[in-house]
Amino acid sequence: MRVLIANDDGIDAVGIQTLYRVIKESYECVLIAPDRNRSGASNSLTLSRPLQPKEIRRNEYSVDGTPSDCVNLALSGVIDGQFDVVVSGINHGPNLGDDVIYSGTVAAAMEARHLGRSSIAISLDGKVHFETAAQVLLQLLSDSHTLNLHPGILLNVNVPNLPYDQLRGVQVTRLGYRKCAQPATPAQHPKGIPSFWIGALSEAHDNAVGTDFWAVENAYVSVTPIHVDMTYYQAMSSLEEWISGGLL
Question: What is the pLDDT of residues 98-150, one digit of tens each?
């Protein structure tokens, strides 16, 4: 198996370097990542200028763009293109519930799915036990040959910030969701220009049993299948009635 590894925290982030070190012991790997932290970039592509990928170490490429840019370039043949699976992570912090809408980590895996590759996004619920997350991913890859998923699905994996031997197991979960984000926070600017930090994430609103939030809070690895069809089918019949009532 040939593995492409990407992230959104940047090429020198502890998470991706730990993952690369562990995975390349068992598989042929290539690493491609933004040249700086691009957390929260979501699925954005850089269309206003050309990109300049650089090989900074053997099989490690830096790109002056977004996580989706990185995967797009690699799978389009700029670097090689011949990969069996794409892994995005290990993210510094969780990607639970509606975090996946903003996450550059999940977006990199989603870009791989758009381009016809199997993909996994993996995040650590903290910033300490990256080795645990890397071992979890290694186990998932070793068993992936038995998995039969629809080609439009990616796996979003969240790992508790615990030593590997303290994990209670793995659960297949659905996405929970958070409460509204915190308000924007004023920031001081040396020239007095009004400046603000985007508000911090809020705690979980839906963390019931079966959600990714519940699993990670209770020391389980959460594995959530995600696809890009965001249609809310339950609302379609009422919308049909509304439109047929003479809206246009």
Answer: 999 999 999 999 999 999 899 999 999 999 999 999 999 999 999 877 677 77
- What does the DSSP 8-state code read for residue 24? T
Instruction: Give the CA-trace dihedral at 118, 42, 181, 196, to 10 degrees.
Output: 150
Spatial distance between the Cα atoms of 148 and 150, rounded to a whole number of angstroms: 7
Contacts of 162 (CB under 8 A, 6+ apart): 129, 132, 219
Amino acid at 27: Y
**What strands, in cross-sheet order, belong to the sheet with 220-226?**
54-57, 60-63, 28-34, 2-6, 85-92, 118-125, 154-160, 220-226, 169-172
- Strands 204-206, 177-178: parallel, antiparallel or unpaired by DSSP? antiparallel
Domains and CATH numbers, the chain: 2-178+205-244 (3.40.1210.10)
Cα 17 from Cα 10, distance rounded (Å): 10
Q: Considering the entire predicted model, what is its pTM?
A: 0.91
Residue 65 DSSP class: S
Alpha helices, DSSP H only, in the chain? 14-23, 67-75, 104-114, 130-143, 212-217, 236-244
Structure tokens at 33: 């990542």
Nearest to 87 by CA among 66, 109, 58, 68: 109
Query: Apex CA 181: angle with CA 175 and CA 185, to 5°?
Result: 150
Bridge partner residues of 154 (DSSP): 226
